[in-house]
Amino acid sequence: MSLSWSAKDHKNTNQPAATGQKRSRNDAGNKVTVVLGAQWGDEGKGKVVDLLATEADIVCRCQGGNNAGHTVVVDGKEYDFHLLPSGIINPKSTSLIGNGVVIHLPGLFEEGDKNEKKGLKGWEKRLIVSDRAHLVFDFHQVVDGLQETERQAQEGKNIGTTKKGIGPAYSSKASRTGLRVCDLLGDFKDFSTRFKNLVHQYQSMYPSLTVDVEDQLKKLKEYAERLRPMVRDGVYYMYEALHGAPKKILVEGANAALLDIDFGTYPFVTSSNCTVGGACTGLGIPPLNIGDVFGVAKAYTTRVGIGAFPTEQLNAIGELLQTRGHEVGVTTGRKRRCGWLDLVIVRYAHMINGFTAIALTKLDILDVLDEIKVGVAYKLNGKRIPHFPANMDILHKVEVEYETFPGWKTDTSAARKWNDLPAKAQNYIRFIENHIGVPIKWVGVGKSRECMIQMF
Question: Which parts of this chain are annotated as the region Disordered (predicted)?
Fold first, then answer.
C-alpha cells in the first residue's frame, strides 16, 4: 500500500561541482516523515509509526527518554517500547536514537533484553545511538522522586512525572554539567571525575541523596563497552542518509504537543520539545528535509497526572471511556483521566506542527454511546476566545462549547475500509476533519496493525 513518502529524484551532492559551473540548488535530499502526538500523549503514535515502519529504512527518536511508552502488537505479541524506536521490530530497518534523547542505559538494555525474550531478534545490530545524546543516571531518577515529594510538600501538588529522571537529566544538560555518550566512550578517568562532580552537585542540593559512586562507575564502564558498537556521529549519519540514495526516513515523536516544554500546559509538561521543531534539533537535520507531519489524535481525550483538562468527564462517561479504552499509562500504570474530544487543543497542535494529515485512533471505544460530544471552542466570561490560553488559571476557568452528535451504536471493530463504517461515524470523522482543516488519513478501530483504516 502506498504511504505517500515524498522522495524526489536524488543526485549525490557529495560530488564537487566542475570549475566555473553554477552549482545546482534543487537537490534538498530525502524528506523525513514525522509522527507526533496531537493531545496529551497516549494517542496511539506507536501504531502509526509501526504501520509506516514496515516500509521505512530508518526510524528515529529525537527527544524524550524512557518516559515515553509505545505499545505495538505484531502477530498477537505485545511489545512495549520506551527508549527504542518502535521501528526496531522491522528487521530491514535501522533504528536511531538521536542527540535530543536522554538515555538511561540500564533502562535501554533492560528494554531490549525483555523484548528479545518475546521474540525481538538482533536489535543491537540494528540500533544506532548518537554520540551527542545525554545520559540519565540512576541518581537523576532518585532526584526526580525527591523533587516530586518536595513539590507535594510545598505546593500541595506535584507535576506527576514518570520518575524516570528525564527532567533532572535535561536540567543537567541545560546547566552544562550533563554527561553525554561521547564522554562515556572517551577518557573514562575524565568521565569518572565529571560524574563524581555531578553527584556532589546534586548531594549539596539533596542531602538525603546517597550514591554508591564506585559501584555506579563500574556498571557504567560495562554499559560503555556494550554500547560502543552502536555509537555514531548522529549529524553525519543523518546527513549521509538524507543526501545518499533515496530512503524512507521516519521520526517517531514521544509525548505530545500539549506536553511540550514551550507549548504545553506548563508546568504540567515534559522537559523537551515534542513538537515538530524537536525533530530538527533532536537529530541535527534542517527544516527543509521535513516532509509529511502526521498528527495522531484519539477520538476522545485522555490525560495522565494533574493539570488542566477542559473536556474531562468526571462522571459515568469518563469511567466508560476509561474502562472501554483500557486507559492506563504504559510507563506509569496510572489510570488516565478521560473526556470528550477537544478540537481546540488539536487545532492548537496543528498551528504549531503544521500537520499534513491526521490519524484518528480508538474510534471503536465510542461505539456504545447514545450521543457523542466534541469540544469546538472555549469561552471565558461568556465570550469565545480565539486562542489556547497559556495561563493555567485561565485554562481551568474556561467553559467548553460542544457540538453534539448522535452515537452510531454499532460495533466498528471489524471495519477495514471507509465504507464499512456506519454513516454516523463517517459524519463524526468528517466533522473533525473540516473543523481542524486537516485530512484524516487513518482511522483506528482496534489494537492491531490491521485495524487502521487507510483513507487515502
Answer: 1-28
Report whether 41 belongs to an annotated binding site: yes
Q: Using pLDDT thresholds of 50, 70 and 90, give the confidence band for residue 87.
A: confident
What is the pLDDT averaged over residues 54-60?
95
Q: Which residue has the higher pLDDT, 61 or 11?
A: 61
Q: Say if residue 449's pLDDT is above 90.
A: no
Helix axes 138-155, 166-174, angle to 10 degrees: 100
Is 346 annotated as ligand-binding? no
Is 446 within any annotated ligand binding site? Answer: yes
Handedness of CA 328, 332, 334, 336 (dihedral sign): negative
Q: Just list the catalytic residues.
A: 42, 70, 173
Q: Give pTM, 2 decimals.
A: 0.91
Q: What is the pLDDT of residue 23?
A: 52
User: What domains lie within the chain, and their CATH numbers?
Assistant: 32-130+231-293 (3.40.440.10), 135-227 (1.10.300.10), 297-454 (3.90.170.10)
pLDDT of residue 71: 77
Query: Concatenated DSSP letters for 76-95?
Result: TEEEEESSS-GGGG-TTSEE
CA atoms within 13 A on the CB side of 150: 9
In this predicted structure, the answer to whether residue 438 has a pLDDT above a threshold of 60 is yes
ω before 439 within 30° of 0 (cis)?
no
Does the annotation list 333 as a binding residue?
A: yes
Helix (H, G, I), strand (E, B) or coil at 61: strand
